[in-house]
Design a protein that fits this description.
InterPro entries: DUF3046. Pfam families: DUF3046. It is a single chain. This protein is about 55% helix and about 5% strand. By secondary structure, it is mostly helical. The chain has one domain (about 5-65). The protein has a two-stranded antiparallel sheet. Helix 1 (about 5-15) crosses helix 2 and helix 1 runs parallel beside helix 4 (about 45-55).
């Protein structure tokens, strides 16, 4: 997953504005008790961060690979 795919998945799941709030404020246990933005800044792979977001927000496993970049919005 590329960084752009991470943010597209976040926006598709949470909406444009709220995706940034989730990235800034939700502490994710699965990436060392960091926010998504902190984990990404520290070099954690976007897919790993996305899956941590999915687990933290109890999203179905069908969404854990993110949004297909070829899908229309």
């Amino acid at each position: 997953m590329k960084m752009s795919e991470f943010w597209r998945s976040m926006e598709d799941e949470f909406g444009f504005g709220y995706a940034r709030v989730v990235g800034d404020q939700t502490v994710l246990d699965a990436v060392g008790s960091r926010t998504a933005n902190e984990a990404l800044d520290d070099g954690v792979a976007p897919l790993r961060v996305w899956q941590a977001v999915c687990r933290q927000h109890d999203l179905p496993e069908s969404r854990w690979l993110g949004t297909d970049p070829g899908e229309p919005r």
